[in-house]
Amino acid sequence: MIDVSGKFETLREAHARAIVRAKPETVDIVRAGKVPKGDVATSARVAGTLAAKKTSELIPLCHQVPLDWIKIDVTPGQDEIVVDVVVRTIWKTGVEVDALVAASVAALTVYDMLKPIDDGMTISDIRLIKKQGGVSQYTEAISPPLRTVVLVISDSTHAGRRVDKSGKTIVERLASQPVEVVEFKVLPDDVDLIRQELVRCCDELRADLVITTGGTGLGPKDLTVAATKGILDKEAPGIAEAVRAYGQKRTPYSMLSQGIAGVRKNTIIVTLPGSSRGAAESIDALFPGIVHAFRMVRGGGHD
């Protein structure tokens, strides 16, 4: 199976279709409700629903997806019966296969119920009509790349007593994002120095994004948040909340972070934890959603 533990839960939907081709007189019997085995449409809907729920047991590498909604329509045509399936979930991976399995089993149920009166039927055109959702739906192109500064806040790292890991992890994670790291710097846990550097990055360097790592905990030397609050024009609490929520599903310690995010002029500042794991997970939480924030900061709104 593919590891989806690092993915976001998003609304996902898939529409699949299967077609049972039969004699026109067979379809007329279905339409009239005179099939000896009973109500074809109802039986097919029940079978398709059960099949969707069993997909992970039938297809070895499929995940066990918690399905929120299944809709199955069985529509007689002239010489065909069309089965349409829509499956919806809020989860980490898509439901295309679940919809296809449901459509296939529903079509087989139609075939089974009609085979005593029509031995020339075929099942065809089993295909995905449409899918939507997932992180890729929210990925936006931005040009030029976001000019980004990474600041490591740590007395011991600044003094050379500790090797930086979190800053390098952030830079590595950013390599796959539409950003350009224009500056990387290590600072001590000093409110005035942190504040001065943030102001420089925003006002003089005019960076698009400033990411700090370290100094967001509850310890006496965790001063990054206090320094950052003093220079922001406005806070963006949703960004920090999203980072904590993402982390909390992976470690019970995420809730201990005071990390904040906000805007100074046209620069977005995000304060991340000092652990390399926390920093990596935080970057995963930020993208691709944070890219859209720059459209808003620059006055473009949501469209």
What does this structure look like?
By secondary structure, the chain is of the alpha/beta class. It folds into 2 domains: 10-137, Molybdopterin cofactor biosynthesis C (MoaC) domain (Alpha-Beta Plaits, 2-Layer Sandwich), CATH 3.30.70.640; 139-297, Molybdenum Cofactor Biosythetic Enzyme, Chain A. 37% of the residues lie in helices and 26% in strands. The chain has 11 helices and 10 strands. It has helices at residues 24-32, 40-53, 55-58, 96-114, 155-158, 166-174, 191-204, 224-229, 237-248, 276-286, 289-297, and strands at residues 10-21, 69-76, 80-91, 122-133, 146-153, 179-187, 209-213, 234-235, 261-264, 267-272. The strands form 2 sheets. It has a 6-stranded mixed sheet with strand order 6-5-7-10-9-8, with helices on both faces. Helix 2 packs antiparallel against helix 4, helix 6 (166-174) packs parallel to helix 10 and helix 9 (237-248) packs across helix 10 (276-286). The mean pLDDT is 95.
Record field, number of beta strands = 10
Which strands sit side by side, in order, in the main sheet?
6-5-7-10-9-8
Mean pLDDT: 95
| Low-confidence spans | none
Q: What is the CATH C level class of the largest domain, in words?
A: Alpha Beta
Largest sheet, in brief, is: 6 strands, mixed
Radius of gyration: 27 Å
Q: How does the helix and strand content classify structurally?
A: alpha/beta
